[in-house]
Amino acid sequence: MIDGLRVLIILPALNEADGLPGVLKEIKTQLPGVDTLVVDDGSTDGTAAVATACGSPVVQLPYNLGVGGAMRLGYRYAYLHGYDVAIQVDSDGQHDPVYVPLLLEKLKEADLAIGARFDGEGDYTVRGPRKWAMGLLSFVLSRITRTRLTDTTSGFRACNRQLIEFFAQWYPVEYLGDTIESMVGAARCGFVVRQVPVAMRERTTGTPSASPFKATVYLARAGLVLLLAMIRRMPKHLKNIAAADRSSVVQRELVARS
After folding, report:
1. Contact, 56 vs 38, CB < 8 A?
2. N or C terminus of the chain: which is more exposed, having fewer CB within 10 Å?
3. pLDDT single digits (tens) 188-212
């Protein structure tokens, strides 16, 4: 536990057997009060066995669904096991656990806290179509969420108990949807989104998927995902989760003032 909160770090992993031991050891060393869950997304390299040997609980998907599918399962696990906070951390070493306390602090004023590159911390850069797509997404989503966002595709994110319940019932599986559509859906239902500047590191394992062609496809798909996220109807019962969250916040504020 951290400050009385049960915190779960969810690590979606696809063929990350080489890097997971170092990532899990770093988390355990820097954040001894948190639990971890490795979601093996159809790996073929022994990822699950390695994670188990490192002392982390593991859930396995029978085949590769992508990060969105892995995170949906992770949020369901967090909800069913009563966690107060769920934090997504990549298994390739890019996300530094040292920033987790800052994400937790930001959750005092938000439901979703994003660890954001391009906000004055670190020197992570992107170029070409991918940079244009990220800039466009940040511009549009900043207005949707009514806050300044610089890194809307970041997978380094923390959410509170109400948003865990929301994501456990509704979380997009499509590539890009796991960050963009989930954020838009949460904002449309009334959840508060904020960001924390973080420095991202180079991945320690795996192969980056970037190429000029894939970057162009990324740009096109990003626009399509954003459009679909804006027009898709959100189920009423999901909006009720956000409404209950807002009500509890108001009650806490009234108690604090009295």
Report:
1. yes
2. C
3. 888 999 999 999 887 665 544 455 5
User: Alpha helix (H) ranges present in 20-178?
Assistant: 20-30, 47-53, 67-80, 100-106, 128-145, 161-169
Model confidence at 126: pLDDT above 70: no
pTM equals 0.84
Residues 114, 194: contact at Cβ < 8 Å?
A: yes
Q: How far is CA 197 from CA 12, 21, 61, 154, 182, in A?
A: 22, 26, 32, 11, 20
**Tokens coding 75:** 């949020």
d(CA 55, CA 94): 21
CA gap 165, 61 in Å, rounded = 21
- CA dist 234 and 71 (Å) reads 19
Which residues are CB-neighbours of 182 under 8 A, at least 6 positions away? 68, 167, 171, 172
Tell me the angle at which helices 212-231 and 180-188 cross, rounded to the nearest 10 degrees.
Answer: 20
Instruction: Report the candidate in 134, 87, 91, 93 with the shortest Cα–Cα distance to residue 115.
Output: 87
Hey, where are the domains in the chain? 7-257
Cα-based angle 115, 28, 96 (whole degrees, multiple of 5): 25
Using alpha carbons only, what angle is made at residue 216 by residues 214 and 218, rounded to the nearest 5 degrees?
70
The CA–CA distances, whole Å, from 194 to 4, 77, 152, 163, 258 equal 22, 24, 11, 13, 27
Closest CA to 252 of 113, 84, 108: 108
Summarize pLDDT for 30-71 with one digit per residue, the tens.
999 999 999 999 999 999 999 999 999 999 999 898 999 999
Q: Are strands 35-41 and 58-61 parallel, antiparallel or unpaired?
A: parallel
CATH class of 7-257: alpha beta
